Amino acid sequence: MVKVSVMGSTGVIGKNVTFKLARADTVSEVVLFSRPESIDKAKGQSYDMYDALAAEDIDCLLTPSCDYEDLADSQIVLISAGAPRQEGMSRRDLAFVNGKIVSNYARQVAKYAPDAIIVVATNPVDVMTTIALDASGFDRDKVIGVGNHLDSLRLKTYFARRLNINSSEIHTRVIGEHGENMVPLLSSTTIGGIPLKYFIREVELDIREIIQTLRNAGNTIISKKGATEYGPAYAISNLIITLITNSHKILTVSLYLEGEIAGVKGVSLGVPSVLSKKGNAMIVPIHMNEYETNKFQSAAEQIGKLTEEVRKSLKEDK
Question: What residues does NAD(+) bind to (predicted)?
């Protein structure tokens, strides 16, 4: 049984992750961390959640707090705090505002929960993963961004729905930036064990349309309901529970690279990772065709530039 802290617990994503974790068999306490001006909202959410948990006979301690000392002994700290993305905004538009928030929170985690794993969900998540790594001073295996985990789930679902095939038969992955420069690994996608390139000879499938739908998924949801909610929250919860249970599943998360994939160094991007209770246990080597390799390296270049701009901005603000 572990303690998890959610920084940004009153936000749309944070509150959903909190409730999902509270219902998990492996979590004994969730700290609903918020700013002082939002503490009443965090308390209200905890009361509401307790009522729901009672209906399922679940005993999980919910601790609303704006005191950093309450982060102590957390095995996982989720940083989901930050300005939300509005319709028409790119994740990059948020980089400079959210960089300050993530940097401050990561420093506090390092001070009060030095043994924790930091999971970063704040957008743009690849940039924020590096900012959290810088500010915390943690080993890179203990700072993990949500990365392309949700993108990979979305692609899997799209193929399943289009082909009317159970999603368990779809094995696919998206890497690179969680954003415009995401890289679907179509060259290694299989359906029922059959490589996609052979499968689509027998089935009418518009790959370009699927990829465009994938890239626009977040904006499509935001335009219709105002925010993405269940998908990100459940993907994040799935990632955290994978870490807690030491299951060694392979998820596509954002990690700081030192040349493991396509020679990319000095930037955080979504890559396949074996996750354990210690964080990233191993970055999984992958084969890419020339097009995918070029797109991945291009994503690295662009995210690297934005990361350096945010780093410079943070230094100037000190």
Answer: 8-14, 98
